[in-house]
Amino acid sequence: MYHPALKTPLCEMLGIDYPIIQAGMGFVARGPLAGAVSAAGGLGCIGAASMTGEELREEIRIVREITDKPFAVDILFATTGGKQTPVFTSDVQDHIDVIFDEKVPVLASGLGNPGPIIDECHAAGMKVLSLTGNTKNAKRLADSGVDAVIAQGYDGGGHTGRVGAMTLLPAVIDAVDVPVLAAGGIGDGRGIAAAITLGAIGVWLGTRFIATPEAWGHDNYKRRITEIDDEGTTRTRCFSGKPCRMIQNDTTKAWESPELEASIRPFPRQMANVTEWLGKDPYMAGRRDGETDIGALAAGQSSALIHEVKPVAQLIEDLMTEASATLDRITKIAAAAS
């Protein structure tokens, strides 16, 4: 039996055994990973960002071949039309259509505000979770009707904000009247216990789930996560034009060099310019082909806590065991002091 504090309201809200959600990471989070996480008692999540609508549909069906347990789809709610008349882009609308067609149990928004479709989601029995990197946006998301907010700290991998998780999490909990999950810098069970102690109802883990056999990606990428220390990542605009935490390599270092031509840098053409500069797509070079010296490899500072590539089922068991032991230790300390 795990510590009773780990049976959080998130478990009841989503119909899962453990308060662990696997982040919907672009390129990496596909059907096999999401299905394995859900089958092991957490909530698996498909990252829709790199997919067409029909590719997303195929990954959803892969999850359902693995398990009948709940899962999520993470959509990046990009819009066009400016602030006055924002409209979801065509690929986002395709993703939205698919999640309703396939009756997906949980929607996660890794970017933007799903507000315009939340009523429809709730009418379909769907729960909605949204990521935020600051309290201002957390309030906006809560006001839009999301079921829970995910507070992602500066230490998280991929696109991330400016506030560290240990400050952001309690600040967001104080600022909103909906449940809050923790993200960023959590790589083991001690981090899960800390998040619960601070008031989170669960955790959103990305980097730790990349280092699993079930994640889509080259073994070199996964192995590199296990090799780097706490200074092995950097927050850079190199690949997308927006601050994104990546594993440091020759490309990220060259980006900071004053010798790099200024024409490479202007937003929003970083992706196209870096692709031209390298002669290949940096995301495919790193994640698919394993060229860790030049490719775009999203990873958080929690990489320093990850020392082996581990199957999902074993990983979740280990995370829960360590989180439970940590909470047990806190309980004993409190009992001894009373």
Task: Describe what you observe in this structure.
The chain is α/β, with parallel strands linked by helices and 338 residues long. The chain has two domains: 243 residues, Aldolase class I (TIM Barrel), CATH 3.20.20.70; 84 residues, no CATH class. The protein is 42% helix and 15% strand. It contains 14 helices and 13 strands. The protein has an eight-stranded parallel beta sheet. The chain has a three-stranded antiparallel beta sheet with strand order 9-13-12, with no helix packed on it. Strands 4-5 form a two-stranded antiparallel ribbon. Helix 3 packs parallel to helix 4 and helix 8 crosses helix 14. It starts with 8 loop residues before the first helix and ends with a helix.
Choose one word for the global shape. globular
How much of the sequence lies in strands comes to 15-25%
Q: What structural class do the secondary elements suggest?
A: alpha/beta
Write down the CATH class of the largest domain.
Alpha Beta
Q: Tell me the count of domains.
A: 2
Main sheet specs:
8 strands, parallel
N-to-C SSE string, H for helix and E for strand: HEHEHEEEHEHEHEEHEHEHHEEHHHH
| Estimated helix fraction | 40-55%
Total strand count, please?
A: 13
What Rg, in angstroms, do the CA atoms define? 19 Å
Number of helices: 14
Keywords:
single chain; 338 residues; alpha/beta; TIM Barrel; 2 domains; eight-stranded parallel sheet; three-stranded antiparallel sheet; 14 helices; 13 strands
